Amino acid sequence: MPEAGAAGAPLMTVIAVISFLACLALAGFFFVRQAAQQWTSDLSGSITVQIVGDSPSVIDRDIAAAENVLRATSGVEEVRVYSLEQRRKLLEPWLGKGRVSDSLPVPGIIAVEVSPALRKDLSGLQMDLANRAPGARLDDHGVWNDSLSASAQTGQILAFGIFLLIMVAACAVIIYAARAGLAANKEIIDVLHLVGASDEFIAAEVQRRFFVLGLRGALMGLSLAIIVLLLSGWALQGLEPSGYFLPAIRNNSATMVWLLMVPLLICTVAAVSAKQTVMRSLSGRW
Amino acid sequence: MVIAQSHKQRSVLVNFENVGLSYDGVSETLRDVNMVIRDGDFRFLTGPSGAGKTSLMRMIYLAQKPSSGRLTLFGENINQLPRDQLPLMRRRIGVVFQEFRLLEHLTAFENIALPMRVQGVNQNEYAQDVTELLTWVGLGDRVNALPETLSGGEKQRVALARALVSKPDLILADEPTGNVDPIMGERIMRLLVELNRLGTAVIVATHDLTLVRRMKKNILRLKDGRLSLHGPLKDISPATRAEASSRAAGDERSALGA
């Protein structure tokens, strides 16, 4: 098969663009997944005990009682009681600086780190707290976690769906190009048949051509996608220096490995669709 | 006029039994064709332009299925042949065309090697055969030439070498001298005759009656879709010669118009 067929450079450009978009969709998929994982894993070992009450003195009493319960419970690894000063600071964005009256019953907060075993079953601790400190409420961040993983899941499904759609587009483009290539090279294919070439031989030649074309285009798309991802990671890092909300782009070798699979997938898709197309259209002849 | 020959000792390569061909299902291009080609035969296929010479050839090299009747190639009824068997059968037949049909992006060597390559034969197994064939057709110095740099006669000799490289049992040549000058035409025809002397069966479709007369070979004549076998043309009267040359001119025009 001559290299200059129906498609050549334009097809390679299309494949490069498809590969670029596929890489971005896949990177989006992993980004959302890892961000959600990081958020939830940060929270999963920690619970919060809130203490509410009618007056500061009741609250202070329950805080002390709850702290005792927590320190006595096995599996509790760290107990951090927020002082009144710290709690007032937390309220500042809502109530304003220095305006909180001393008589306002500011709820108590105890941040607790627990072992995975205790995390699985908090009912014992919950009961102890209810007995000894009636104003204590145990928050295991379940609501936050649930809504977070639900939206992360939606994001992941969306990203993966887009990735699949892009792959379908790749298939369609390749099939179209393979058909056009067959029509444009009809004379050559007739000669190949004439000298005794089997359909498999012709299909293999076409397949090899599309594999190379697909690989070249896809690698171009991948390079571009990596550049864009690194640049946007770098830009976002500047915006959000703590790196808490945008963790996935940086230093993520697993994502990079998956991105490297995209060109392989694309050129395999190209080769297989081209071969199938050729075999199907040749078998219609005699 | 029609001669009966007995060739019981030689195997039958091609057998047409009441073969008909119709492209549109209504008008018949070929009707009731009966023909036997045996190992070692040489036949000219003649007839006016549009008589179906090319259609007949296309059926033998498996580019066209007969519409009716029975066509047997190398003992196999081709109507019952599965598609994956066609390449094996085509490899036993070498074909040469008026328009050469070389692959323009391949060198002379690569064009000739093509039938071997599509069979998956290793290059070092056929390289010597290809070189010898190039020498035999007088193009030993044009091994790496691309078709666009070759003259018509040179292209046709490359095409002939390509038809021979897989050592076929049968060579078909469809107007092989149509696009080459008369001297080269005669040279190509002599190559075909020499090949036949070495044992390969040859069918040459041509309207060049001058060459046909000179080669003194049996003639298959197609007229109005029907085929008949004749002995060699001995001499032709001036009237026939005039008719032949006007017919040839007509063929030339239709070939150019096509």
Please describe the structure with a list of short key phrases separated by commas or semicolons.
heterodimer; A: 286 residues; 2 domains; 4 strands; elongated; B: 258 residues; alpha/beta; Rossmann fold; four-stranded antiparallel β-sheet; 8 helices; globular; disordered C terminus
Explain this structure to me?
The complex is a heterodimer of chains A (286) and B (258). Chain A is an alpha+beta fold and 286 residues long. Chain A folds into 2 domains: 173 residues, no CATH class; 82 residues, no CATH class. Chain A has 9 helices and 4 strands. In chain A, helix 1 crosses helix 9, helix 2 packs across helix 5 and helix 8 runs antiparallel to helix 9. The two termini of chain A are 21 Å apart. Chain B is globular and about 50 Å long. In chain B, the strands form 2 sheets. A 6-stranded mixed beta sheet of chain B has the order 6-7-8-3-9-10, sandwiched between helices. A 4-stranded antiparallel beta sheet of chain B has the order 2-1-4-5, with helices on one face. Chain B folds into 2 domains: 173 residues, P-loop containing nucleotide triphosphate hydrolases (Rossmann fold); 69 residues, no CATH class. With 258 residues, chain B is of the alpha/beta class.
